[in-house]
């Protein structure tokens, strides 16, 4: 048989056995849980056995009451067996438990809410989780692909005013390498810093792009680039026209991947665990170089 119950409540299971006419001494009744007899001192369970003889009929009746102190999930998956035995034969009856309808629905709703909250948490903290697992498995996630640089940084200075030119120079020569190279262990190739005088620019660009895992594009009011795995970083406001001044190829990249907005002077803007740099690091490949800041990134 099956009885209904609620979780974390006390449940009593009653078993009565008719043993015959005035045979009280030769009749035994006990409870088993999954085939194991319940002892008198078993934790979480207790059995109270009584016997009586009806005066009018002289029938011997033995009653065993199993008390479950606190119903748990394991009890819903267990078989409770009442066993009765006398000199002639023994019989048994099996009882299982199930949740009441509203309790079952409540449990389903709770589980649904749990998974929903878990999904929302993963969505909100996906970047933090990805960076955390990178730190944990950083020695397993790296693969030798023949690349030299983690990212190739391109930017354009033509057509920008002096204020924007100073902002670009500061970001490219100071902020970007300080955070990504010194604090996060990436290796960048930055024009004006890593190229040698007299090198053929076109050959250099082609060679560096072949040796780089990512392309970081610094967007200014006048920019152009080519397409590969791209990280778009925007400095300053693009004006009323938005990105319409960009070449068609770069506009296509902007539509595919929204640029990350760099806000100079914002508090914590040079910390590798700030929102901006987390997103940049998330889009970068696995760091190749360990730094003293590895334990402070997440």
UniProtKB/TrEMBL annotation:
Biological process (GO) annotations held by this record are:
signal transduction
Has UniProt tagged this entry with the keyword Cell membrane?
no
Domain TIR as annotated: residue spans: 147-284
Membrane-crossing segments per the record: 102-125
State the InterPro entries in the record.
Ig-like_dom_sf, Ig-like_fold, IL-1_rcpt_fam, TIR_dom, Toll_tir_struct_dom_sf
The alphabetical list of record keywords is:
Disulfide bond, Glycoprotein, Immunoglobulin domain, Membrane, Transmembrane, Transmembrane helix
DNA repair is among the record's keywords: no
Q: Short name of one Pfam family for this protein? A: TIR
UniProt-recorded name of the protein = TIR domain-containing protein
């Amino acid at each position: 048989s099956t009885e209904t119950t609620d979780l974390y409540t006390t449940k009593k299971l009653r078993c009565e056995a008719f043993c015959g006419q005035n045979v009280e001494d030769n009749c035994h009744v006990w409870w088993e849980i999954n085939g194991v007899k319940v002892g008198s001192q078993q934790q979480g369970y207790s059995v109270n056995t009584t016997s009586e003889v009806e005066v009018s009929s002289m029938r011997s009746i033995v009653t065993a009451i199993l008390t479950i102190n606190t119903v748990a999930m394991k009890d819903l998956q267990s078989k409770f067996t009442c066993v009765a035995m006398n000199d002639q034969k023994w019989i048994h009856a099996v009882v299982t438990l199930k949740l009441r309808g509203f309790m079952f629905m409540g449990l389903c709703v709770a589980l649904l809410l749990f998974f929903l909250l878990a999904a929302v948490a993963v969505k909100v903290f996906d970047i933090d989780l990805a960076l955390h697992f990178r730190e944990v498995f950083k020695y397993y996630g790296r693969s030798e692909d023949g690349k030299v640089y983690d990212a190739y940084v391109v930017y354009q200075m033509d057509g920008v005013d002096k204020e924007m030119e100073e902002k670009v120079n500061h970001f490219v020569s100071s902020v970007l390498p300080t955070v990504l190279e010194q604090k996060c262990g990436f290796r960048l190739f930055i024009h004006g810093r890593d190229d040698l005088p007299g090198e053929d620019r076109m050959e250099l660009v082609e060679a560096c792009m072949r040796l780089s895992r990512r392309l970081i594009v610094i967007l200014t009011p006048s920019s152009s680039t080519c397409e590969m795995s791209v990280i778009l970083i925007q400095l300053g406001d693009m004006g009323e026209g938005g990105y319409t001044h960009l070449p068609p190829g770069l506009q296509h990249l902007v539509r595919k991947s929204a640029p990350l907005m760099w806000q100079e002077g914002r508090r914590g803007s040079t910390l590798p665990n700030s929102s901006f740099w987390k997103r940049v690091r998330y889009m970068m490949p696995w760091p190749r170089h360990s730094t003293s800041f590895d334990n402070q990134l997440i």
